[in-house]
Specification:
Number of strands: 5
Structural class: alpha/beta
Radius of gyration: 17 Å
Largest sheet: 5 strands, parallel
Strand content: 15-25%
Number of helices: 6
Shape: elongated
Oligomer: single chain
Helix content: 25-40%
Length: 155
């Protein structure tokens, strides 16, 4: 389908967003490489860099698979860039889980990271200290805080 879209609108740039790591295969990357009007930017629906937290979130991938997807896309698409979403303060998130996520974000080198607090009460609430710590422990120039949660742009 993506190939058909890119060919149909060959004069326009096409952006593919919100990739799940499990769909990024060698075959998928080879196909993407043949599409000259596909933007070399992908938003990876990560949510956490901790496999344990991803399992608790009922995601169908783990941190290793997410990093493998990033590496595979980098192998096939020159100058590819990534953005992602991270949820911090998820119930049962330990200090180790938090640190795994920080390290994952650093290793992945995301262009931008959108950080959201876990919504454990059915509505947005004040950010937990982990959210502020995440902002401080990663390259803050690459972090964007959701404007509805942080109207002043700071954690």
């Amino acid at each position: 389908l993506l190939t058909a879209v890119c060919q149909a609108v060959h004069q326009l740039r096409v952006r593919l967003g919100s990739l799940e790591p499990r769909i990024v295969t060698e075959e998928f990357c080879k196909a993407l490489k043949t599409l000259p009007n596909l933007c070399p930017h992908f938003h990876l629906s990560l949510q956490s860099g901790s496999s344990r937290i991803l399992a608790l979130m009922k995601r169908k991938y783990n941190a290793r698979q997410a990093m493998a997807a990033i590496e595979l896309l980098r192998k096939y698409i020159p100058n590819v860039k990534f953005t992602t979403d991270i949820i911090v303060g998820f119930p049962q998130e330990s200090e180790e889980d938090f640190e795994e996520t920080v390290e994952f974000v650093k290793a992945a080198g995301f262009l931008t990271t959108h950080i959201f607090p876990a919504d454990t009460q059915g509505k947005y609430r004040r950010p937990r200290s982990n959210q502020k710590r995440f902002f401080l422990q990663t390259d803050s120039s690459k972090v964007q805080l959701h404007p509805l949660l942080f109207p002043n742009g700071t954690a």
